[in-house]
Amino acid sequence: DAGVTQSPTHLIKTRGQQVTLRCSPKSGHDTVSWYQQALGQGPQFIFQYYEEEERQRGNFPDRFSGHQFPNYSSELNVNALLLGDSALYLCASSDNRGIQETQYFGPGTRLLVL
Amino acid sequence: QQQVKQSPQSLIVQKGGISIINCAYENTAFDYFPWYQQFPGKGPALLIAIRPDVSEKKEGRFTISFNKSAKQFSLHIMDSQPGDSATYFCAARGNTGGFKTIFGAGTRLFVKA
Question: Nearest CA of chain A to the CA of B69: how many Å?
Answer without folding.
Answer: 23
